[in-house]
Write a structure and sequence with these properties.
Length: 97
């Protein structure tokens, strides 16, 4: 069973527009290189905050790095609040490589 996203937070971030199910234009989390994991610092706050399991850590040289599963991300923004490096923003799914 999945939790409902925090709609108040979404409305705060994106205005009072309709909140619909995931569409091609739905925003998803995007992690920048300022993430602590890219500096070899073990941090998994975003994964711990994600209620849908959209943040996965992949092994890489120098330590595990976070990756967003855009099919699982509902754009709730919980990871943004949890990130101590301010490394996460929301972006349209189709702009994320
Ligand atoms: S919470 Fe921020 S700094 Fe920590 S692993 Fe996630 S993106 Fe990186």
């Amino acid at each position: 069973m999945t939790e409902e996203p925090d709609l108040q937070r979404r409305r705060f971030l994106f205005g009072t527009g309709q909140v619909s199910s995931q569409t091609a234009a739905s925003p998803v989390a995007c992690i920048s290189p300022s993430c602590f994991a890219h500096m070899g610092i073990a941090c998994m706050s975003c994964r711990d905050a994600c209620s849908t399991g959209a943040v996965r850590f992949e092994l890489a040289l120098g330590g595990a790095r976070p990756r967003i599963d855009t099919d699982q991300c509902n754009g709730c923004g919980d990871c943004i609040q949890a990130c101590p490096a301010d490394a996460i923003r929301l972006a349209p799914a189709e702009t994320i490589s």
